[in-house]
Amino acid sequence: MDDRYSADVLSPGWREAGRRIIPTQEATRDLVVEEIATGFCGAVIRVEKKIVTLEDRHGKLRLFPLGSGFLIDGRPVTLVAPTMAAALGRVRTASGSTAVPNAPARVARASRIFVEGRHDAELVEKVWGADLRIEGVVVEYIEGVDNLDEILREFRPGPGRRVGVLVDHLVPGSKESRIADAVERGPFAANVLVVGHPFVDVWQSVKPARVGLTAWPDVPRSVEWKHGICAALGWPHEEQADIARAWQRILGRVRTFADLEPQLLGRVEHLIDFVTAE
Predict the structure, then answer these.
(1) Ramachandran quadrant class, 60 (left: phi over 0; alpha: psi -120 to 50; beta: rest)
(2) Angle at 31 between CA 46 and CA 74, to 5 degrees
(3) Buried b / exposed e across 73-103, counting CB within 10 Å, b at 16+?
(4) What pLDDT score was predicted for residue 101?
(5) pLDDT for 125-180, tens place per residue?
(6) pLDDT tens, 129-140?
(7) Would you tell me which of 27, 59, 141, 246 could form a disulfide with 121, CB atoms 3.0–4.6 Å apart?
(8) Is 14 part of a structural domain of the chain?
(9) Can you give the pTM of this predicted structure?
(10) Where residue 100 sits, what CATH number does that domain have?
């Protein structure tokens, strides 16, 4: 017969017999965890004095003490402060590139990236700013692409003086696509690259979940798009200052490239590669 009982109750390990071991997990930035007692689920924003700050998908912040009482993918973990080595080993820029600590900004290249508006420029700076400073690439907004041909003739692209252009709503049959086609046939085609995303506005390139939506609302063509979005979200939109505040609210939800749609990510990376090619 099997011996159901140990012959020696004081044998090594008797206290741990049958006990479930909960693994520890370093609270590194952007790690998504759930706090068991409240059910609050969010990404790690920072760790200070044994307190971890989590941000949920609506942008709400909550503070919790490090320790037990957290879940990752439904499994319990004990959160601990990240070690210095772990923090240094995982340092990434917002675009996902490996960060270069204390690297000075490179002297600006002659090449440029043009974007249509201020919001486009602010979004590119927030996600790719560190990379662009390392590469010495300046991003300028040109307030639309209607005068792109004139802007290029004034800039005079050439070898070592390339131009990348990011265009909103670059879809077949659009005004933007006709402008891009004209550039490809123009005198500067070899040193100019025009790419674009399919979204009506760069706001749409932010994943809707970052502002608590499952999808961006449909806005009738008779309504100015930004105003329509603000109205659908219940945000003020009567004045231009309201639109500016709405954008800052959206931009504030963007932390890394993971908060943006891939249709924008690939286009910006393509432009950076193009203007930095030797």
Answers:
(1) beta
(2) 130
(3) eeeebebebbeeeeeeeeeebbbeeeeeeee
(4) 67
(5) 999 998 999 999 999 999 889 999 999 999 999 999 999 999 999 999 999 999 99
(6) 989 999 999 999
(7) 141
(8) no
(9) 0.69
(10) 3.40.50.2300
C-alpha dihedral over 200, 204, 205, 208, to 10 degrees?
-160
Same domain, 137 and 263: yes
Q: Model confidence at 210, in pLDDT bands (50, 70, 90)?
A: confident
Contact 134, 103 (CB under 8 A): yes
The tokens of 140 are what?
């300028």
Query: Minimal CA–CA distance to 155: which of 133, 131, 138, 136?
Result: 138
Residues 118 and 155 in one domain: yes
Same domain for 114 and 162?
yes
Q: How far apart are CA 132 and CA 44, in angstroms?
A: 26
Q: What is the DSSP letter of 19?
A: P
Structural domain range at position 223? 207-253
Structure token pair of residue 99: 């960060």
> Is the residue at 9 inside a domain?
no
Residue 151 forms part of a structural domain:
yes
Looking at the DSSP assignment, which residues form a beta bridge with residue 63? 53
Which SS3 state, helix, strand or coil, does residue 138 take?
strand
Output the six-digit token pair for 126.
């927030």
| Cα 136 from Cα 140, distance rounded (Å) | 13
Domain count, the chain: 3
d(CA 111, CA 213): 38
In a domain, 6, yes or no: no
- Average pLDDT over the chain reads 86
Measured CA to CA, the distance from residue 250 to residue 246 in angstroms comes to: 6
Helix (H, G, I), strand (E, B) or coil at 36: coil
